[in-house]
Design goal:
The relative contact order is 0.13. The protein has helices at residues 10-30, 35-50, 52-55, 73-76, 79-88, 113-124, 136-145, 154-159; strands at residues 90-96, 99-105, 152-153. It is 46% helix and 9% strand. Helix 2 packs across helix 6 (113-124). Strand 1 and strand 2 form a beta hairpin. The chain is mainly α and 182 residues long. It has a three-stranded mixed beta sheet with strand order 2-1-3. The structure holds heme C. Heme C is lined by residues 50-51, 53-55, 66-69, 72, 74-75, 82, 85-86, 90-92, 94, 96, 101-105, 108, 119, 123, 154.
Length: 182
């Protein structure tokens, strides 16, 4: 006798449970409760949508065309320079990990302050990098003070360091009271 004679058989309920749990998992992935985790997820999403086609899913780059994002001074170095690079794009000769690139990266200023901060925090904390987070208000300050027209010439961008406003002001969000020394 066929299983269909018994109404909704095991395969049906099995499939239903599977679908229900898939929805549950997807719902959980949409809304991580931890703010740090949500920021990480946003950064990863922005990276996969706007950066990975050129720089690779794991920041490995494409030799001779798109530089890697692994332990490069552009990524783990000065925050202001990195923010400017993404806001306005960059062109011209640039040395990355001993290789010379001479290509063009378009501006990504159409992304929000939060998207840029999250994606930069993401690349600074992944691919073997261990540099600190970048906050949306830092992107905002660089954006507001900028009068850059067109993409940066790489050698000029290299010198364009720092965040306007309060360069050395500690970020209250990053201040961990337990870390305070005297
Ligand atoms: C269309 C391809 C393309 C996309 C998309 C792109 N880049 Fe780039 N990126 C480049 C190229 C090409 C260079 C080198 C430019 C040059 O030769 O002057 C570069 C350089 C860089 C550098 C400095 C060099 C290094 O490897 O450390 C960083 C950092 C960077 N990109 C980050 C990003 C981030 C973050 C995104 C996404 C928001 C992004 N890029 C999107 C092509 C791209």
């Amino acid at each position: 006798m066929s299983i269909h004679a018994h109404g909704f058989g095991a395969p049906f309920w099995g499939a239903l449970v599977l679908i229900a749990s898939l929805f549950f998992v997807m719902a959980c992935e949409e809304e991580p409760t931890d703010p740090e985790e949500r920021y990480e997820r946003l950064g990863q999403r922005v990276y996969n949508s706007y950066c990975s086609t050129c720089h690779g899913a794991n920041g490995q780059g494409v030799r001779g065309a798109f530089p890697p994002l692994r332990e490069t001074e552009w990524v783990v170095g000065d925050e202001g320079r990195l923010i400017r690079l993404v806001l306005h794009g960059v062109h011209g000769e640039m040395e990355v990990l001993g290789e010379t690139y001479n290509n063009v990266m378009i501006a990504h200023g159409f992304l929000s302050d939060e998207q840029i901060a999250a994606v930069l925090t993401y690349i600074r904390g992944n691919f073997g990098n261990e540099a600190g987070a970048i906050r949306p208000q830092e992107v905002r300050r660089v954006r507001d003070a900028s009068d850059q027209q067109g993409t940066w010439e790489a050698s000029e961008l290299w010198e364009a360091t720092g965040i306007p406003g309060e360069p050395d002001a500690p970020d209250p969000e990053e201040e961990a009271p337990s870390d305070a020394t005297d």
